[in-house]
Amino acid sequence: MVRARTNAANGAPQGGRESTKAYLVGSGIASLAAAAYLIRDGGLLGKNITVFEEGGTAGGSLDGEGAAERGYVIRGGRMFTYEAYTCLFDLLSFIPSLSNPEKSVSDEVYAFNDEIKGHSRARLLRKGKKLDVSSLGLSNRDRLELIELMAAPESMLGARRIQDHFNPSFFKTNFWYMWCTTFAFQPWHSAVECKRYLHRFIQEFPRFATLAGVRRTPYNQYDSIVLPVTRWLEGQGVQFLMNSQVTDLDFKHTQTANVWNASTTCATRPAPSSTWSRVISYSSPTGR
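RESULT FIELD:
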């Protein structure tokens, strides 16, 4: 959510970007990326960006905490591919590495994966025995149904499940066993979601048996991604209000400010000279 001074006649921001303020609810990777791009591409001052976080650690499901003596808890992680995660690697391309500030985080990830190459030698097991997965095991009918799913408009698929689209034999193929264990799909899950993943990861089909296309970060994704991004944002002046819960979002009539949402559309104005602002109410144990 972005608040900006506006021209009452046409709603255009006045006075440059120095008067623009942004408020982000939650400190997951989406908010962190939004804050970074608001600074780099939007021209906002970091000090005018506030991130509200209900918990005590940034990163959303990519958070991490603990110590060597008592162990670590890391809730989330992703297996990256360069082709599917272009937006993430663009973000990391201008974030300095914590281990070597002369390099970007993306450079650090590239170098790590050039040195440590992933290559699974046992993708599937049956009764403790490694299975040969050099063939995906797809019949011509399976291939045709995969193509049909990828080509079908989402509006046509509607609420259909994956099992509504494929022949039962499809769910006994090496492809399905590797697909469902890699992306956590079940036959009763959404056919639309499966279609989206097929489009996003089709380039992995030739290397699916070894996961050779999967890239990893040097450390867990909190230390390798979230921490460098938050450190960079803090260095730019971004304010993180931790242990703060947004409790309300209200609209207030004003003559001096207008609030823009993420899609840069304004609240409707009753008259050309009138503007609106949105007011966030939040609670914080610190009283800030």
